[in-house]
Every structure is written in C-alpha cells, then in structure tokens.
Design brief:
CATH class of the largest domain in chain B: Alpha Beta
Helix content of chain A: 25-40%
CATH architecture of the largest domain in chain B: 3-Layer(aba) Sandwich
Oligomer: heterodimer
Order of helices and strands of chain B: HHHHEHHEHEHEHHEEEEHEHEHHHH
Largest interface: A-B, 50 and 65 residues
CATH superfamily of the largest domain in chain B: NADH-ubiquinone oxidoreductase 51kDa subunit
Number of strands of chain B: 10
Shape of chain B: globular
Strand order of the largest sheet of chain A: 2-1-3-4
Number of helices of chain B: 16
CATH superfamily of the largest domain in chain A: Glutaredoxin
Helix content of chain B: 40-55%
Strand order of the largest sheet of chain B: 3-2-1-4
Radius of gyration of chain A: 18 Å
Number of domains of chain B: 3
Largest sheet of chain B: 4 strands, parallel
CATH topology of the largest domain in chain A: Glutaredoxin
Structural class of chain A: alpha+beta
Number of helices of chain A: 7
Number of domains of chain A: 2
Structural class of chain B: alpha/beta
Distance between the termini of chain B: 46 Å
Radius of gyration of chain B: 23 Å
C-alpha cells in the first residue's frame, strides 16, 4: 500500500479539485516518483481513492507516455529525436550511447543503471541536442559532456551539468 | 543592430535577478494587481485588454480580451482559468523561460485575469517534463500566498483566488485547449467537439478561459502602462505588443529573443541570431513551430506578425522559428516532423489517426529510396483527407510540413523516387512499416 505513507500528499492533492478524478495524473505522478514506475497495485489503490474502476485508471495511464508500466533502470535517459534536435546532431548522440552503453531505445544496461528512450520534443529546441535524465534536463550535449554525465551519475547519483532555471541566450549584462 | 525595449524579459535580464517575490516587487511587481483591485471593475479590465489588441501567444492568436468577454456574466459559477503551460510545439521554448525565470509575472497576470472573468480557481497545466518549472511555480505560489497576492481575502479585498499547479504526463495534444481540459479532469487528453466552447462549457462543464503563459505575462504590463501604450507597439492594429520568439536549428545564436511583432525574419535570423552557423546558406525555415508550413529564403523579408506570415502561406503560430541550412534534405525534415505527429496523434479522429500512420509510412519509404511512382500524389491525397476533417486543429497542423515541402522542394521527392526506380525491380514487395 504505497499511499499509506503518503497520506499528507494525497490529502493535499485531493483538496485542489472539486472533482476527485482530476487527482488522477498527480497521484500517478506521485506513484511513479515513489516506485520508479506505475505498478498494478498502485493503479488499483488509486482507483479506490478516486472512486474509479481499475480500467478507468488503466485507460488513462496508457494515454500518457511519461508513465512507465514496467520497472526501469535507475536513470532514465530520454533523448529528444524531434527535428530541431536532429538538425544539431541528436542522432549521433543516440548512436554514441548505443556504442558506449550497449543499449538501444527501450533497453536497460545489464547493471540496471541506465534505460534509454528516444522521445519526441521536450521543449528545449534552442539548446539541443538535449536529454532528460529522471527529473533533470541536460542541454547542448556533446560526447564529452555525455561521458562526464554518465560517470557522475554512476559515481554520485547526480551531475552538476544539469540545467538550472532556463534562460538562453544568457543576458549580456551577466 | 537595432535595440528593442524588452517587456517580458526585462526583469530576468537584470544581472542577478532570481525571480523571487522580493525582487519582482522591487521591479514594480504586483502594482498592477493593486491598481486593478483599487480602480478597476472586471469589465474595465476586459475592456483594457480588448483595446490593447493582445492576441493569444500559444499559437492560434485569438484576441484575449474577446475570449474573456465570452464568459457569461450571469453564470452562478464556479468559473475557471487554466493557464496553458504545456509548451510542446517543436521549436518553442519560451514559456519555460518565462516560468522558470520570472514566475510572478505570469502569476500576477493570472490573478488579474481571474478577477476580470470572475474565477476563484485557476490551474496551471504544465507539461510533465518541466519538473523544475513546476517546483519554481509552487515556490512562487507559496511566496505570493504568504504576501496575500493569492488565496483568501486577496490583499484585504474579500476576494478569493486560488491557483494550483497541475502536471501533465507527456502528451503534445494536451496543449490543445479542450484536450487540456479533459486531461485536467483526469481523462485521456482527447479534444472535445466545439461548440460548445470552453467559455460556456469548459472545465467540469463550467465557463473557462484557457490562456497561454506568455499571454498571462503580458497582462500586468497592459494594466500598468495602459492599453494604448501596448497597442502602439509592434505591428498595429492587428499584431500588437512584443513576442518572445524562439530560434533554433542551424544558426549561430539560437535562443529566445523578445522583439516587437512585425520585424522581418531576416533581421531576426541574421541580426539577432547571428546568421547561419556555417558558410552554407539558408535553405528553408519554419516560421511558427512544427505545425507551420515551411518557408523559403525568398520569404525572409516577410514581417513577423500574424497577418504577414499568413499571407506568405504559413502561420506565426507559437513563435518558434527553426532554420535549416543548404544540404538538409527536406524529405527527411518532413519525415522527422511527421514521425512526431504520428506519435502524438491522440487517435480520436480516424483521418488523423490512420492518416498520420500512412503519411509516415509513405515518407519513410521515399526517404529509404523505396518509393514508388505516384507516392507524391498519394501524400497529397492523404493530406487532403485529413485537413479539415478532424475535431481539432491537429489535422491541419500535421499536413503542413508535408504539403509545404512538396510545394517548395518537389524535385527532392522526385529525385528520391527516381533513384528507387533505378535501384529496385518494378514489381517489388512493399516495404514493411517499421516505427
């Protein structure tokens, strides 16, 4: 019962909406943040919480690409492949990752560290090529940067190259 | 190079500006809200926004004040405001900057909008990937609440306006306003038939306004400086104010640039963006996000306002300009965009669901030099059966890249098909679709 330990969060989320079902995406996001994916028990629990049937939850989950229905690696590498990133070299990076980590899109490294996904536009077109790793954006990627990111993630679980509040180009005054 | 006065990016371009409430207030923030509560009636706010000529910055460019005016005044309520922060049009990344660098600017705009339309509750629907943006907005909301700018008994006025952040989960279509409402109701994000419009039957079937982040960020400035001031900027009377245009692709200095509407693309790409990144000349550009048909170098002197771009056969859309240099295959570019639309089609309307898959397959085989004679005509026929036959504007959007690249660079399609005829026997099996 994953939501038993999250009572405060659940109560706060439910209080935002006059109709319970609106809390569905926030609760799914919460479940995924907790477990790394959306499990069937979590979906059943959410259905109970929101007075929905399990199929109503499932049909909604499957519409949204951000929900993982299976466990994935510790770090979810999502590389943007849309035109704007492709113009500045995202395909080369995907090939490089395949080569370095020995995984293709949809696959996880044998140490369960990295899962690779190739995704559509993440809204960072001026600073491509880019990828999202779990909650963080990494932009203006090069092979050297990727190497450092993977090393740092393996060692520290985080990397200082991740993006802060976005502004590009940076102001000339700075 | 001409220097333009910034409105929306002004604060964040000050050295060290972090977007905190204190800094926003020091820069004159929340004065507009105080002014509205003291001197304005809801109708006066709507009138000011109508007079300013402000048009929606999300893509469709609908006049904002007119949209607000459609909210029925005699409705017992509740009424809702939804801020569309689902920025997901490829080529567009301005709202992310506006939210993460100066969140109070849009929040102030939202509170004023709620006052104008009589809403007590507002939601910011932010795309699920923008985790940092959502955190920043929640933090800003806490600050604003503590200072009495949001919440119960707003600045002692007796009014209640609550704002919540709602995170999506990765669906482009949720940027379409009725799909956004469906998603906010906890359902699959599929657009609704219109009419009825959200102004009368929106969130939970109640009167609802859906406005883009950049639209909201403009509101405090219109109140502070007056509708006439705003209406004098840009390309009046139909395209007023500035816009934060996004530049991406093969240019030296990509990024967000705020300029008055109506400057030519040439100035935007070559002066602000520094021109092409290498010595290869410009081959084509997308003027307003992935949904906007491609334009050619001969269109560089077109003005960046709603009417001029429409006259040139495209649209200003979300303001995302993507530049491609000589040597870029336009069949490949169309395929890449079509793969995006195929992936993001919600599946509600058959022409779009089936048509997008068919378009991708056909483009794929042309690009892989397995195309057949008649494939260009097939693409055109398919596009003709999608546009105008779907519930939402996604249908028009997805055929734009295909039809415009065929129009401007038909010879590239023909050459690839010709190569396939030479390389393959005539009665070959159709390649199996792989995606």
């Amino acid at each position: 019962m994953i939501f038993e330990q999250l009572q405060n969060e659940v109560t706060a989320i439910l209080a935002r909406y006059p109709v319970k079902r609106s809390a569905l995406l926030p609760l799914l996001n919460l479940a995924q943040a907790r477990e790394g994916y959306v499990s069937e028990p979590a979906m059943r629990e959410i259905a109970k919480l929101l007075d929905l049937t399990p199929p109503q939850v499932f049909e909604t989950v499957t519409f949204y690409t951000m929900f993982n229905l299976k466990p994935i690696g510790t770090f979810h590498l999502q590389i943007c492949k849309s035109l704007m990133c492709a113009l500045v070299g995202s395909d080369d990076l995907v090939a490089w990752i395949k080569n370095q980590l020995d995984i293709g899109p949809g696959q996880t490294t044998s140490d369960n560290m990295f899962t690779l996904s190739v995704v559509e536009c993440l809204g960072s077109c001026g600073t491509g090529p880019m990828m999202q790793v779990n909650d963080d954006y990494y932009e203006q990627l090069t092979e050297e940067k990727l190497k450092r990111i993977f090393d740092d993630l393996r060692r520290d679980g985080t990397c200082s190259l991740k993006s802060g509040p976005f502004m590009y180009p940076e102001s000339a005054a700075k | 190079m001409a220097q333009y006065e910034k409105i929306l990016l002004k604060n964040m371009e000050q050295p060290g500006y972090s977007g905190s409430l204190k800094e926003y207030e020091q820069a004159g923030g929340y004065q507009a809200l105080k002014k509205v509560l003291k001197d304005f009636s809801p109708d006066a706010v709507i009138d000011a926004v109508k007079k300013s000529g402000l048009r929606g910055r999300g893509g469709a460019g609908f006049p904002t004040g007119v949209k607000w005016g459609f909210i029925p005044k005699d409705h017992p309520g509740p009424k809702y405001l939804c801020c569309n922060a689902d920025e997901s049009e490829p080529g567009t990344f301005k709202d992310r900057q506006l939210m993460e660098r100066d969140p109070h600017q849009m929040l102030e705009g939202m509170v004023i909008t709620c006052f104008a339309i009589g809403a007590e509750t507002a939601y910011i629907y932010i795309r699920g990937e923008f985790r940092l943006g959502a955190q920043i907005l929640w933090r800003a909301l806490d600050e604003a609440k503590a200072a009495g700018y949001v919440g119960e008994n707003l600045l002692g006025s007796g009014k209640t306006i609550n704002i919540y952040v709602h995170q999506g989960a990765g669906a482009y279509i949720c940027g379409e306003e009725t799909a956004l409402l469906e998603s906010l109701e906890g359902k699959r994000g599929m657009p609704r038939f219109k009419p009825p419009f959200p102004a009368t039957h929106g969130l939970y079937q109640k009167p609802t306004v859906v406005n883009n982040v950049e639209t909201m960020a403009n509101i405090p400035h219109i109140i502070n400086n007056g509708a006439e001031w705003f209406a004098s900027i840009g390309s009046p009377p139909k395209s007023t104010g500035t816009r934060v245009f996004c530049l991406s692709g093969h240019v030296k200095r990509p990024g967000n640039y705020e300029v008055p509407m109506g400057i030519p693309f040439r100035e935007f790409i070559y002066d602000l963006g520094g021109g092409m990144r290498s010595d290869k000349p410009l081959k084509g550009f997308i003027p307003g996000g992935a949904s906007a048909p491609f334009l050619k170098p001969e269109h560089l002197d077109v003005k960046m306002d709603f009417e001029s771009v429409a006259l040139a056969g495209s649209m200003l859309g979300s303001g995302g300009v993507t530049v491609m240099e000589e040597g870029t295959s336009m069949v490949w570019a169309a395929l890449r965009l079509m793969e995006f639309f195929y992936h993001e089609s919600c599946g509600k309307c058959t022409p779009c669901r089936e048509g997008s898959s068919w378009l991708v397959q056909t483009l794929q085989r042309i690009w892989q030099k397995k195309g057949r004679q008649g494939d260009i005509e097939l693409l055109e026929e398919l596009c003709g059966n999608i546009a105008g036959r779907t519930v939402c504007a996604f249908g028009e959007a997805e055929v734009g890249p295909v039809l415009s690249t065929i129009k401007h660079w038909r010879h590239e399609y023909e050459a690839l098909i010709q190569e396939a005829q030479v390389a393959l026997p005539p009665n070959k099996e159709l390649p199996v679709f792989s995606h």
